[in-house]
Every structure is written in structure tokens, then in C-alpha cells.
Amino acid sequence: MGPIVLGGALQTALRSDNVRAAQGMRDLASLRGFLTGPAITPADGCALGAAVLLSLFTCIRCWVSSASAAAWLLFGLAILNEVHDQGAAAPGERGGVA
After folding, report:
1. How much is the CA Rg of the chain, to the nearest whole Å?
2. Pick the residue with more confidence: 11 or 82?
3. 15-50: pLDDT as tens digits
């Protein structure tokens, strides 16, 4: 379906009566839509791209802050575990070592 075939179909549709010409244009538009598939126009793409980037940066900040909080929590629990093990060990023994 090169430009020669589509151009010929367009000329044929325009030479005939108005109803047939309109049907031919609708057929060509349907064929073009089928071949190219659903697409986002550039004007819509710019706004959508900005929204995607904004949500991506927002989600990354939320993820980093929650990951940092979890890391600090685990670090604090590890320190408390070591302090607890050291206090519970008999004198002369190191906690956690068999």
C-alpha cells in the first residue's frame, strides 16, 4: 500500500459523486488508522510526558524516603540487639558467639 496506490484511490474517490467520495475518504482514514495503529499526537504527548515524569519523580522520592526510614529502623534494631546480647552474656563471654 504505497503512496501511488493511496493516491490513485484518492483521485478515484474525488472524481466520482460526493457521497461516494466521502465514503472513499472514510475508507482511507480507516485503512490509515488500521495500518498506523493507535497513536498519541505530539501535542498530547508533551502534556502526557510531563505528567509521567512528574509522577515518576514523586514516586521515586516516596520510595527513597520509605527505604531510608526502613534502613534506619533496621540499623536501630541491630544496635539494640547487640546491646541486649552484650548485657545478657555472662562475664567474660561475648554475646552471640558460641
Report:
1. 34
2. 82
3. 766 666 677 677 777 777 777 776 655 555 567 777
pTM over 0.70: no
Collapsing DSSP to helix, strand or coil, 10 comes out as: helix
What are the residues whose beta carbons fall under 8 Å from the beta carbon of 20, sequence distance 6 or more? 13
In the numeric block, which cell numbers belong to residue 49? Answer: 510526558
Q: What is the DSSP string of 26-93?
A: HHHHHHHHHHH-S---HHHHHHHHHHHHHHHHHHHHHHHHHHHHHHHHHHHHHHHHHHHHHHHSPTT-
Among all chains, which residue has been given the C-alpha cell 552484650? Answer: 86
- At position 21, the amino acid (one-letter code) is A
- Give the whole-angstrom CA distance, residue 2 versus residue 31: 12
Give yes or no for a contact between 13 and 5, defined as CB atoms under 8 angstroms apart. Answer: no
Locate 44 and state its grid cell. Answer: 498530547
Q: What is the DSSP letter of 16?
A: S
